[in-house]
Amino acid sequence: MKIGVLAVQGNFREHAAMLRRLGADPVEIRKPEQLQGLDGLVIPGGESTTFMRLMRLYGLDEAVREFVGPLLGTCAGMIVLDRRHLGAVDIEVDRNAYGRQVASFEADLTLSGEAESLRGVFIRAPRVREVGPEVEVLAELDGEPVLLREGRVIVASFHPELTDDTRVHARFLDLVREASHVRA
Predict the structure, then answer these.
(1) Can 161 be counted among the known catalytic residues?
(2) Radius of gyration of the chain (CA)
(3) ∠ Cα 161 97 29 (to 5°)
(4) What is the mean pLDDT of residues 50-60?
(5) pLDDT at residue 184 greater than cutoff 60
(6) What is the C-alpha to C-alpha distance for residues 142 and 151, in angstroms, rounded to an integer?
(7) Active-site hit among 14, 15, 85, 161
(8) Closest CA to 121 of 83, 80, 164, 82
(9) Environment class of residue 95 by beta-carbon count within 10 Å: exposed (0-12), middle (13-18) or buried (19+)?
(10) pLDDT the model gives residue 101
(11) Exposed end of the chain (fewer CB within 10 Å): N or C?
């Protein structure tokens, strides 16, 4: 599987390393034409305002909006994919809602369908304010959604690439496999 990782800013190297561990072929994406032939795309954490500015500058905003493969957005990537930005997932989020950099924290999350908890690393994390009717909540923190899926898109308020737990990326790659079977 050839998975693009948006590499204009943020934790793209950590996502690439996680995908490589799971047997995927990660490709750093900096230009719209590099999206051709990808099976999926990851939009990593970073700073969402900077992400959107750089994506517009390079024409990546429209290219990602038109991308039909599965998407994974973490932290700032969640913001970029929400309904107020690229509109790939029917959620509305508040930036940095869990606090400033010094308020960063880790927490154990209950992951749907799993007995073992998932460690979430929250760094200036967005908080989900509103969830559309077709959005499935996959994990919560204190009753609030932090990992969600809508169709071909998975988004997380936290940074799954900063732990050794591969389950979020594995779920994303399962979506990629499902999508490739549908296309085939």
Answers:
(1) yes
(2) 15
(3) 40
(4) 92
(5) no
(6) 25
(7) 161
(8) 164
(9) middle
(10) 73
(11) C
Give the chain's mean pLDDT: 93
169, 136, 170, 164: which is closest to 151 by C-alpha?
136
Q: Which two tokens stand for residue 38?
A: 């990808």
Helices in the chain by DSSP H: which ranges?
12-21, 48-58, 60-66, 76-81, 167-183
14, 15, 85, 159: which is the annotated catalytic residue? 159
Rounded CA-CA distance 8/31 in Å is: 9
Token pair of 24 as six digits: 């995927």
Element spanning 99, H or E: none
Residue type, 180: S
Q: Which of the residues 14, 75, 150, 169 is marked catalytic? A: 75
Active site residue 159: yes
CA angle 131, 18, 68 (to 5 degrees): 50
